[in-house]
Every structure is written in C-alpha cells, then in structure tokens.
Amino acid sequence: KTIVLFNQAPLDLRVYRRLIPELAGSLRVIAFDTPGYGESDPPDAITTIEEYSITFAEAIDALGVQRPSVFGSHTGADFAVELAGATMVGRIDRVVVMGLPFYEESVRRSRVPATVPAFRDDGLHLLESFHRPPSVYDADLRGRMTAAVVDRPDRAFWANHAIYAYRPGEVLPKISAPVLFLSN
After folding, report:
1. What does the buried/exposed string (b/e) look like for 41-68 if buried means 16 or more CB atoms within 10 Å of the residue's CB?
2. If the chain, 184 residues long, is cut into consecutive pieces of 10 residues, what is the mean pLDDT of each piece?
3. pLDDT for position 168
4. pLDDT attached to residue 131
5. Which one of 27, 47, 60, 157 has the fewest beta carbons within 10 angstroms of its own beta carbon?
C-alpha cells in the first residue's frame, strides 16, 4: 500500500517530517513538493488545481504506483480531491483531506490576486507575512510559511490563485473512493 502526501502552499514536503516516519512503518510514503515550492521547479506561470493534479498524476505513474491513497492538507486537499474525482478517476484507493478549502464568491474575489507584502527596509514586511491570514496557530509553521514567502516572493502565492478558483464541491460527488474529512 502506498500513500501520497500533498502539502499546503507555500510550504513544502518538510511539513510532514514528523508524519512520514509514523506512516512509513506500514505504508510506502511518497511526499511531493507542490510545483514551484520547496525544491521543485515552478510551472511556467500561475496555474490551476487541475493542471497541478495532472503533473502529480504523471509523477505517480512514473513511480509505478497503481492505486495509492492520497492525503492532502489545505492546498494539498484540493489536489487529493481533483486526483480522485477527475484526474485519476477509479485509481485512488482512499482520500483523506484536512482543511479542504471552500470559499464564498466574495472571499474568492477579495483574495485574488494574492500578493506578498511589499519589501520594507525596516523588515516589517516579514512580520506582515508572519501574521498574514489565514492565521496558523503554530509558531513553527507560521515561521516556515514566512520563510517560504521570503524565499520565493515572486511566486509564493501562485497556488493561492488556483485554490480560490477551484470548486471542490463540484468534484467531491465524482469520487468513488472513501473520503475522510479532517479539520484542524
């Protein structure tokens, strides 16, 4: 059995550094960086959840994985839903989503385009990134998110465009695998 993990942008697969060893005792664990985050190459331009998912499906196929379970957190939850309900229909064994993002139209319009706080000589842009909504309560995670924004300010929020455009409620009914919803 294989489980594929998808993380929240702008983070990378290191967010699962404590989870992977726990799962690896009984499962083959694959964790991908979202294209453009962590150590992965970026897409050529801002893209969609559907296009990200095609990239992940190609990677899963290249690794010879036939019927994986998928787990995604926030941005990664959208990837898991899209893979199971559209891109790899009938090929996903189980789906676990944590913090699957559903947004009202007013929120969608207010969040795109998502931008990085402008650089300021006094460094307060870092504090703005640290406190940027949605608030993440764990200081370590907030710090890593801020570092990701600082590391790749030109594309730190590319995936946000995809999240706010995606409508998981339209894809969920198409999933034939069992789905577990988690919220943190």
Report:
1. eebeebbbbbebbbbbbeebeeeebeeb
2. 93 90 97 88 89 97 98 96 98 97 83 63 72 60 69 72 90 98 88
3. 96
4. 66
5. 27
Q: What is the DSSP string of 60-89?
A: HHHTT-SS-EEEEETHHHHHHHHIIIIITT
Please name the helix (run of DSSP H) or strand (run of DSSP E) that holds residue 146, with its range, or none: helix 139-151
Residue 75 has which token pair?
């941005």
Task: Give buried/exposed letters for 125-161 (b at 16+ CB in 10 A, else e).
Answer: bbeebbebeeebeeeeebebbbebbeebbebbbbbbb
Total residues found in the chain within this entry = 184
**Separation between Cα atoms, residue 88 and residue 85, nearest integer Å:** 7
